[in-house]
Amino acid sequence: MIESWRQILFIISAFLIICLLQLYSLAYAGDPVNVELRNSEGTRQDTVRLYKGSYALLIGVSRYTAGWSSLESVPAELTKVEEVLREQGFVVEKCMDPDSEGLTAAFTDFVNRYGYDPDNRLLFYFSGHGHTRKDGSKGYLVPTDAPNPFREERVFLQKALGMNHILSWARDIEAKHAIFLFDSCFSGTIFKQKASPEPPKYITLLTAEPVRQFITAGTAGESVPAKSVFTPVFIDALRNGLGDLNKDGYVSGTELGLYLQENLPKYTDQSPQFGKIKDYELSRGDFVFLIGSHGEGDDQVGSQNGPPQQQVTAPSSTVTLVGDGLDSNDKKSNSAKRTVVGGPGFVHPDSRQPSDDDEGGGFIRRKK
User: Which of 20-24, 31-35, 258-262, 338-342 is the most confident on average?
Assistant: First the structure.
């Protein structure tokens, strides 16, 4: 009898501990972000709190089950992205290998919990296959269970997550700033700009206006090297301050897009695209990362503290809640050849999109 009561008390205690951990993870908002505002002449005007909370959703798809090739290096890459975002003070949530329902649920749940506080900044990072249709006008993120679109287009459209859904979430959320990064090759009219913007000279009051920004590793029809170049260049832009083009101690979303667009083509045949949503009221501001001396004292962003890590199950995926968060002269050195799925013995260069010229449904991989 005593032993039975001990077991019951143990179960109750374990349940309460799990509940407390979840509440602590949700309550922890990361470190507040303060920025120095300057006028057009560069004179310091004030220091303001730009963000109260910082949250990031990292989604990685590596184990495809319906015809797309696996992307085995995605988990390790997302771990590195997670580390640099933790240094930036983000609360990081990871979703690995979601199916179609899990992919939609990951976005929906994240937006519901963090997207309706106007003082938050949100970062979305997807690493996996991408696909483009309708002469580049429609882009899609590919979950684990989406089939070959050249063989089963209707089922693919039912499973894949279209950019129209991403845009709907982007417009619906109330968070001040949101940036969406895609380590995939696909196209979409949202990424097309009439001209490349100039990097902002200073952080001004206009920077604090709402914004929705988007960056993708490449466009439709491009092959991506077996080992991601987008990820290390993104990390260097933040961790080593290489994305601070105007040397003011901040990396804005515009600077990050310009830096990636300038540097990725040096090491791989990729043409990164970036832009803001086509909505005036959501395109005036600029996402901000802090680096250098701004990471000290009252403006501290990087934090070694935060809630403990826990594992939570989402539909057909694994979610991890975390509280804190190349130079080559031979561009072909990082490319690889793999046998495609859907065509026996047929070989394509690695990438993250299906082959447009293979009606048999062969897929070209990005990763080993």
Answer: 258-262
Q: Which two tokens stand for residue 218?
A: 């490449």
- Locate the domains of the chain by residue range: 36-335
The values of phi and psi at residue 284, to 5°, are -85, -30
Task: Report residue 23 as tokens.
Answer: 């509440």
d(CA 73, CA 366): 9
The pTM (predicted TM-score) of the whole model is 0.74
Both structure tokens of 284: 């005036």
Q: By the 8 A CB rule, do 70 and 63 touch?
A: yes
Per-position b or e across 140-155, b if 16+ CB within 10 A of its CB: bbbbbbbbbbbebeeb
Residue positions counted in the chain: 368
Could you give the C-alpha distances from 162 to 72, 85, 187, in angstroms and in order? 24, 26, 11
What the block records as the tokens of 72 is 């085995």
Closest by Cα among 275, 282, 265, 192 to 230: 265
Nearest Cα residue to 170 out of 161, 182, 178, 181 = 178
pLDDT surpasses 70 at 40? no
Convert the pLDDT of each residue in 234-261 to its tens digit. 999 999 999 999 888 999 999 999 999 9
Q: Which two tokens stand for residue 103?
A: 């992919």
- Give pLDDT tens digits for 288-346: 999 864 444 333 333 333 333 333 333 333 334 333 333 333 333 333 322 222 332 22
| CATH code for the structural domain at 36-335 | 3.40.50.1460
Count each helix (H run) and each strand (E run) in the chain, helices first: 7, 19
Q: Work out the end-to-end distance of the chain between its first and last CA atoms, rounded to an integer number of angstroms.
A: 56
